[in-house]
Write a structure and sequence with these properties.
heterodimer; A: 141 residues; alpha+beta; 3 helices; 5 strands; B: Transcription Regulator spoIIAA; five-stranded mixed beta sheet; 35% helix; disordered C terminus
């Protein structure tokens, strides 16, 4: 049995904080995740939503970004779906080593690493029709 | 914050500390702003430190290995030299005397 909260937001950066708020509130209603894990959830969902919004902005899409939060006794699973042009998940450029001069030239490109590090399970399915990011936070981790 | 750093560097500050002690949340956009600040300060021969007592905030920096190129401090007290201070509200700077 899961509680499901779904929201659709305009592809605008100022809606990221709303998604963060809704997902964290939904997760808090499900008495499962520790507060520190909800903090992780907020950051990871923020990254996924920001990327989805940017995909729509880049492609000129006026369609909404869709976020679904599924809370159960065992997990909180969030999916973020966009209808952007997609990307090659395995072809993402690697971040230069932190000590290299090139690293200071990269102010973006850290979001997916952060998502993957904070979620207990994550997946990215991307095609020319859009991208779906799935982030799972498991109880007891 | 970006503008506060630009202003502090333009005014001659070389040692800068970003005071993140009141910060409740940071994501990759915020990290990017810090990387940009670090680049700007180092281009002028300076250095940047972060005052970041929150383990949650610190962890996000560590995930991206930024703790390897930035000095992270628990409080202003552990800074060895008095830098110009840019608060996370990005509204004020304090010049190095």
């Amino acid at each position: 049995m899961s509680d499901i909260v779904e929201i659709e937001i305009p592809a605008r950066a100022d809606y990221v904080s709303l998604v963060r708020l809704v997902v964290a509130a939904a997760a808090e209603l499900a008495p499962s995740l520790e507060p520190s894990r909800i903090d992780d959830l907020r950051v990871a969902v923020s990254e996924a939503t920001t990327n989805a919004i940017q995909a729509h902005i880049r492609s000129g899409s006026t369609r909404p970004v869709k976020v679904c939060c599924r809370c159960s006794n065992g997990s909180v699973v969030v999916t973020v779906r966009d209808e952007g042009p997609g990307f090659e998940v395995d072809a993402l450029p690697e971040m230069p080593p932190p000590e290299s001069e090139a690293r200071l030239g990269r102010e973006s490109g850290m979001g997916i690493s952060i998502m993957r590090a904070l979620a207990d399970q994550s997946s990215i399915d991307s095609s020319s029709e859009g991208t779906e990011v799935r982030l799972a936070f498991l109880v007891g981790r | 914050m970006r503008q506060a750093v630009v202003t502090a560097v333009a005014e001659g500050s070389r040692l800068l500390a970003l005071d993140l002690s009141e910060l409740d949340f940071v994501d990759s956009f915020g990290l990017g702003a810090v990387v940009g600040a670090l680049k700007r300060v180092r281009q002028r021969g300076g250095e940047l430190a972060l005052v970041c007592p929150s383990s949650r905030i610190r962890r996000v920096f560590e995930i991206c290995d930024l703790d390897r190129i930035l000095a992270l401090h628990d409080s202003m007290d552990t800074l060895s030299e008095l830098p110009a201070v840019v608060s996370d509200g990005a509204t004020s700077t304090r010049r190095q005397p």
